[in-house]
Specification:
Layout lengths: L3 E2 L18 E3 L4 E3 L8 H5 L5 E2 L2
Antiparallel strand pairs: 1-4, 2-3
Length: about 55
């Protein structure tokens, strides 16, 4: 299951540049991870507020 971004997201964009499949984009209020996520986990370590969770 794909990773999810929680409401703790501060929309800093740190995760977007590290995603190898460009599955992360700005949503209405926070960033969102698309179904194309391959569960590599690279985004998790890039988040400064630990807002990315395993799905």
């Amino acid at each position: 299951m794909a990773h999810k971004i929680s409401e703790d997201c501060v929309s800093c964009g740190s995760c977007t540049g590290v995603c190898p499949v460009d599955a992360i984009a700005q949503g209405d209020s926070i960033y969102e991870i698309a179904d194309t996520c391959i569960d590599c986990g690279v985004c998790v370590s890039s988040c400064p507020v630990d807002a990315i969770l395993a799905g």
